[in-house]
Write a structure and sequence with these properties.
It is built from 5 helices and 13 strands. By secondary structure, it is α/β, with parallel strands linked by helices. The chain binds fe (ii) ion (2 copies). One fe (ii) ion (FE2) binds next to loops.
Length: 246
């Protein structure tokens, strides 16, 4: 039994327009690459965690074929909510889990058992600017209104993450792998409420996605910090080959 993760499939089987970036380079026919790697690597008793941004669809009916594509991948599929997942109302995760029971598991305010680990997670959030630079290219300030908005979302997501941890703790779990869609820290920062929580619950790994294009791959932590392994699993970063987490 193994645990794999990949994020940002950005499927679009039912949308008319494809994002321009998805027609060239590493994104060209990425669905076929995902399918090929999954079939090669993942067995039916493995778990595949999809770290958000599943579909361009605006609602559940516009995502039907995209979710079907995910359903048909090998292994047990656990989904995290990404910023593009309009089909997933954060307050209705329980009804998604009822509807897709035995086919897909939606990870939010709950946890997924994997051997003696609990897989916990939430979408997360980071402040992505705008930042204002001085003449030497150093940060001189930022958009206060955007920052206040980001702080509010970060607070809400940290509550959801704690709910996820506590659900697992109540059931006796002591080992955790933590998943976020957004990177765990703001650009230029090394700490956040999310890294603090990862340390508080002594998670062994933090796995996140969302960062696209080589220039963004090092926006946040990667590698080992304070005994925790941080891994970026956005699909284009992995060149569509799911990463083995455990
Ligand atoms: Fe994405
Ligand atoms: Fe994203």
């Amino acid at each position: 039994m193994s645990l794999y993760a990949i994020g940002d499939l950005h499927l679009h089987y039912q949308s008319v327009l494809k994002a321009p970036m998805q027609q060239t380079g590493v994104w060209r026919n990425h669905e076929e690459k995902v399918l090929k790697y999954c079939r090669k690597l993942i067995h039916e008793d493995d778990v595949l965690l999809l770290a958000g941004d599943h579909s361009w669809g605006h609602n559940l009916s516009e995502c039907e074929k995209d979710l079907q594509f995910i359903e048909e991948l090998p292994g047990k599929k656990v989904l995290l909510r990404g910023n593009h997942d309009m089909f997933w109302d954060a307050k209705k995760t329980a009804s998604l889990n009822e509807r897709f029971e035995g086919r897909l598991f939606f990870l939010q305010d709950n946890y997924y058992p994997y051997e003696d680990y609990a897989l916990v997670g939430t979408k997360g959030y980071v402040f992505e600017g705008p930042y204002y630079l001085d003449g030497r290219g150093r940060i001189a300030g930022w958009d206060e209104k955007e920052k206040a908005h980001a702080d509010k979302l970060i607070e809400r997501e940290s509550i959801r993450l704690r709910t996820s941890f506590e659900a697992a703790v109540r059931d006796g779990y002591k080992k955790f792998i933590m998943f976020l869609h957004y990177p765990p820290t703001d650009i230029f920062k090394e700490r956040s409420v999310f890294t603090d929580m990862a340390e508080e619950y002594r998670v062994s790994q933090v796995v996140y996605a969302h960062c696209h294009g080589e220039r963004r791959f090092n926006d946040s932590l990667r590698g080992e910090y304070n005994g925790i392994l941080y891994r970026l699993v956005s699909g284009d970063c992995l060149k569509w080959k799911p990463e083995k987490i455990l």
